Amino acid sequence: MKNRAEDLLASYVDALYPVIYINHYDFRAVDGMLGNIADGRKVIEYNNGIGIVDFRNKSPMKECDLAGFFSLVKDDGYDTPVFLVLKDVHNQLDDPVIISFIKYIAERNLYREEYNATVFIVSSRLHVPQELEDLITVFDMPLPGVAQIKEIMEEFRDGLQISVPEETLDGLALSFKGMNEFQIKQILNLAYQDGGCLDSDDRQLILKQKEQLIKKAGLLEMVPADESVKDIGGLSHLKTWLEKKAKVFARLDRALKYGVDIPKGILIVGMPGCGKSLAAKATAGLFEMPLVRLDVGRLLGKYVGESEENLRRALKLSEAISPCVLWVDEIEKAFAGVGGQGGGSDVTTRLFGQFLTWMQEKENSVFIVATANDISRIPPEFLRKGRFDELFFVDFPDAAERREILEIHLKKRKKWNRELDLISIVKLTEGYNGSDLEAVVKDAVEDCFLEGKERLTTEDLKKAQGNIRSISQTLEKRITEIRRAAKDIDLKPAGKRVSAG
Ligand code: ATP
After folding, report:
1. In the chain, fewer beta carbons within 10 Å around the N or the C end?
2. CA-408 nearest atom, ligand 1
3. Cβ within 8 Å of residue 312, ≥6 positions away
4. Least confident window among 154-158, 160-164, 246-250
């Protein structure tokens, strides 16, 4: 019986797609699929470095290069329907001779009724030369869904005759989501060797393996997220919202069965130094997920299509390690120039479109936290309903929030004491952001230490405050611009300050 992926692949063949590029590294799995959909066709395999091999038992049949292979088989499609399976030939696809052979076969497959040959390019690297763009269809092997993952785990459990509670299976199956069968089995083996059983602690193992995947690929950056929501002063609406979503993620399997949607992500815009990055980190801490940063600039490549391919791989990778928090910092800069004219902005526009489509269609547990200062420079498509679950505006902290922030930073440095008159500092710091307030505490603590004092006093804080100009003063024009742009959009205040104006 064919599975969903095989049905899809078979439909490509029936629709006469002449060249299908299967971007995958697990050649055994691909062979299995091709064997299942061949439906009486002859399957001829070419293996880079070996030549023609028997598709079934892989024994070498004839040594030749790729051009030699094509000249031998290019007309086989007239005798009998064939699959021509090319493995690891991605590096040879720019060769004009190879291009013309592929075109020869593709055109006959499309326009000659008496000819039937489908070319499959199978490789873990995706490389589509411009000349073949219209003929090649890329087929991504779908990753196993939760039900399939559970089957893999049940098979593993039954093979070893160990008992694993149903609830543990459900929880682990969700953590495995985004990994392929091979990776899942590898981790199950590791977990079993480690403790002789499978239990919910193995989530950590899965997380560690996912970290390895990220480091190896070099497309995303793993960010340590030791912060918790308690480290954020103010931003109470945002914190409450996140705490609600954390409850959904904590019981995601049950929530999904109940009909709750998977939280997609949030956009946090607003004043600099007010805790947007801090909130991204705290989100990962709260959701108990790894935090990975997507740096679009880092994905830009020299060659045509390279940037798009890098973004595609980065997004796939984020799915592979999901559940995770994907942080797109300074999103307005990442997609600066969208819709503009000329080389650089063309690429950015394409990347932006690709990212939006992925966001729109995603049904995985990658939670996006996008942060930005200036909403006027964010492409408006991002702000439409349905992209993010919520758009938050972070303003400068009001008096109560400033007090909270001061307290947090004093407590972090173990310098908080009841005698401190924080109200007077709060009064002096209107227009200060979280970062300025942290600087006040930091400087005061340092001076106190240098003066050899045991206890920090209100005077120490006042002195430090006197030396620090607030960001509202230093960046006055910029702040006005940010506020003006935010007024035109329906943004939810992240903290208590009600209006953006
Ligand atoms: P930018 O727009 O410049 O990137 P941001 O809004 O992302 O700024 P953060 O990087 O989160 O600001 O803040 C810088 C530092 O200031 C934080 O690491 C934290 O120490 C302190 N800080 C800022 N806001 C808060 C807050 N609301 N509560 C506690 N600390 C804060």
Report:
1. N
2. 29
3. 126, 354
4. 160-164
